[in-house]
Amino acid sequence: MNEERSYQIILSPHVSEKATIVADKNNQFVFKVATNADKLEIKKAVEKLFSVKVKSVKTVNVKGKEKKFGRTIGRRSSWKKAYVGLESGHDIDFSGVE
After folding, report:
1. What is 3-86's CATH number, 3.40.50.300, 3.30.40.10, 3.30.70.330, 3.90.1150.10?
2. Minimal CA–CA distance to 76: which of 65, 89, 61?
3. I need a surface site. Which of 7, 11, 33, 66 has the fewest CB within 10 A?
4. pTM, 2 dp
């Protein structure tokens, strides 16, 4: 897999209260990923971009919510979320501080 595809697969880290609890408890990190990415591609992309060893990948398809805009009913886009478990001794630092 080339580096360009890795950047297309991993869209962003997903930061939420649940994601923080999972990161502290199970050494897992949560990412927003491309909807057409499979588990093996996600694993290779995370290993390549962050130089870590991935133990497991679990994916969830998140349905978009219906929202009202005045009288009009709209729908947010559906997206895919990946829970990436790391081997012990590996960590990802998103702070960017060296």
Report:
1. 3.30.70.330
2. 65
3. 66
4. 0.87
